[in-house]
Each structure stands twice: as C-alpha cells, then as structure tokens.
Amino acid sequence: MDRQSLADWVHHLGDRDLPLLQGTAAILSIVDANPQMSMRAVGRLVQRDPGLALKLIRVANGVPHRHFRTEVVALDEAVMMIGTDGLKRAIQELEKLPDVLSTNAQSYYRYLAGRVAYAATLAEAWAENRHDMIPSEVGLAALLYDLGELVWTIHDERRMARYMELVRDGQVLPHEAEYVALDVSLETVGHALAERWQLPAMVRECMCPANARHARAMGVMLASNLARDAMAAWDHPGVGGNLDQAARYLDCSSEELADYINGATEHFNAHVDLYGLDPVPLLDEETIKAYREKGARPPEPVFCLMPRSDRYEQARSQLASHSLENRDQVLDVLLEGLHEGLGLNRVVFARLSDIGDTLSAERMEGTDHEPAFNRFELNLAGGHLIAVMMKRPSAFWLNPSNCDEVWPRVPHSMRTLIGVREFFAHSVFVGDQPYGLVYADRRSEVCALDRRALKGFKTLVELATAHLESLRQAGRGRL
C-alpha cells in the first residue's frame, strides 16, 4: 500500500465514527441506578462497545484540562474527564448500528465488536496478573487493536463480506485474506487512523508488529489471537500455539492459564447477547494441555499469494529513482514491493545492533497476527549461516536442493521461529558496513519459492541498498 493510497484512505475515513451497538444505551440506566459506581467499573461498561470507547477516548483527549497534563490513556480516565453527561452525549451522537449497515454487515460488525471486547477483557486481566501499572490502558489497546478491520466493515460491506468468509474458520490468515479480498492492509489503515486521531500511544504502538518484543504489546497481540480462537469455540487451527505462547508469556501452568482465560470468558459471557453471539465455552486444564501438546496446526494454504507485476514495478522504479526522502521510506517501499509485488508472504527487515552482535526485527510485512514470529531476533555468535552472511553483502536461497546440507547451519532459534525449510535472505551493507538482513518466505512449503522470485528479491534489495547508500552520502537523515 503506497503512501499516496494510504493518505487517500485516511482522508476518506478520517471523519468516520464507529456505530453504537444496539443495547449499549442501557449503560446509562446502569450508571444512573448506581451513583457510587467507580470510574473503573463505568470504563469496563464502555469497553463492551468499541464504537463508544473510540468516541469517548477521542473526546477526552480533545478536551483541555488543567488536571491532565498528559494524554488520557484509558476509558476510566476518559469517563472521569468528561463525566456522565459527556457519556450521555456520546451515546446520543453516535449513529446506531441498524442505521449504518445492512442486516448481514451488522452481523459481521457485531462479531468483530464481540471479538475485540473479549480480547480487551483478556488483555486487561493478564495485565493485572502481571502487576501492570495501568491495566485498563492495556485493555483499551486490545479493544482498538483491530481498528482497521472495524472501520473497513462500515466502509465496504461487499469486500468485507468476502474477507470475513475467508477468515472466519481460520483456514486463511487475516493478512492473506486482506491481500486477496481487500487489496489493503487493515493494520496499516488502522495504525494511520490511530495516528491521525492521536489515539493513546499504547494503542498505536501495539499496531506495529515489531513491538511484539515489548511485553505489554505482546500481551495485546496474544489476547487478540486468542479472541479469534474463542469466537470459534476454541476450534481453530492456531489455538494450540496461541495457548502455549500465552502460558509462556504469563509464566504459568495449564491449570492457571485455564483460570485466567475462564475468568475473562465468564465476564464476556455475562453480556454476550450484546453481540448476538453464542457464549464462549470454558476451558479446563486437560483440554489446554492437549491443545498445547498438539501445538499450532498451521492450515494448509487455500491459495498462494500471486505476484503483482504492477506493484513490483512501482517499487523497483521508486527505489531506482533515488527520490525517496529517508531510510524509513526506502524500507517501506522495499518490504511492500517484496510482499505485494512478489507475493512473498512474510518479509522482515532486521537491523544490526550498534555493537554488531544481534539482528532484531525492525519492520515486517505479512506478519500482523504472528506475535511470536514478530519477535524475530538472531544472535550472531557461533559462526552459523546468518553470521557468515553478515560478513559481506550476499544473498541466499534455502531450498530443497541444498536444505539437507545447509539446514543444520541455520541458527536453532531461527529454525524454531520460522517453521519452514525454504526462505530467501540477503545481508545489507551501507558504506561498506553491515547494516541489517532482509528475510522472506512463503510461510508454507506448499507455496514454493522459485528463481523468478529470487531474481526479483535480489533486485529490490540491491536497489534499496544503493538508495540507502545515496542517502548516507547526502547526509539525509539517520540511517
């Protein structure tokens, strides 16, 4: 998604509110009947409806107030800022869901609203367990994590219906369904809208896949994935891997994890009718153990991403022109060209640390819902394949003809992380100094890499490297 297209979409969508769910107005009667209700409790009521939550946080952060010198980061703070009268005005001002969408699209939107509300409940509970300073801030970040998906549902009913058809059973990953059904990145649109609206920093940071290396953001991403599993009654291809990651994240047993998840589930099920969904089943220790032992079951690809010659040529032309203003633009065009132009499912730029001992993911494409993969990090000690590649500019294609020989030289942490035995890698040098690594794969070996893709991969990486070098020589911004 190029910069101009993104800017056009943000301009088009930037004044839209999310609609109010039917039944949300009942919050007012609950608040009126309980005048001593804490702001935290009111905030949790608001958190049930992402449309109302988004409205309140935007209104609260738009109000100058001498007692609040920093941004309002959570819904309890927002309610405290604008008061119950402000809450009433927000409810009255928002359009109601039946007035905005067709019957079928309302069903999609209610499903999404329920899913993000479940994720928010789960993430906030985990934050409390981890003794987070502001658990409700984490809850809000989880609620708005899929902002792009929520906004697009009210913008384009027809294409979102196709998208939802692809992703509901888990056989197609969300970012691959976007590639086919929408031709936009929902994560990118959501993040751009969050920036335009100046939503709290935590909300914006969680929308960047590379921030999975931070514990708070990782919790939000995991909760979002588990919410998808929960909405499918835990019958979802990735549930085993997601539960195992959650247990590792919380450093807990399967029994403890069941307690954490079931607490959130019971809270959600108490108001599940708001979304028109079935109650989420509870999990017991043995079920979680069984899921974890099976691990993740990546679905067999329903389709392989097709290259798009126009997107590739656009990226090639931009990189060759040396007209981009800074290294961020160069890397964005490179990764988009590899993902959208060549149809490479997962693309990573990993930056070399200042002391030259570690490569850490800085930018990704096609990995929005893979938080474990987004912690891509490689230690260069030990003389393994990647360490050798970082000694000079070089490209490598791991493929069936060399895998038996080379696979043992791939660092163990990388083998575990990527889950495939075929990939492209290219070390990047700027000014004769090692700078980083570009990695790409097709996520599944069913969708094989080929020489044509390798040629395009090498071409774009080499053009990007030359562009970075020209920026360095011109002294234009940091590298």
Automatic annotation (TrEMBL):
Record-level Gene Ontology MF annotations: kinase activity
Protein's name according to its UniProt entry: Histidine kinase
Coiled-coil zones: none
Pfam families per UniProt: HDOD
Keywords: Kinase, Transferase
InterPro entries, sorted: GAF-like_dom_sf, HDOD, RNase_Y/CdgJ
UniProt KW Transferase keyword: yes
PANTHER family assigned: CYCLIC DI-GMP PHOSPHODIESTERASE CDGJ, PTHR33525
Matching PROSITE patterns: HDOD (PS51833)
HDOD domain segment(s): 18-213
Keyword Membrane: no
Matching SUPFAM superfamilies: GAF domain-like, HD-domain/PDEase-like
Cross-referenced Gene3D superfamilies: 3.30.450.40, Hypothetical protein af1432
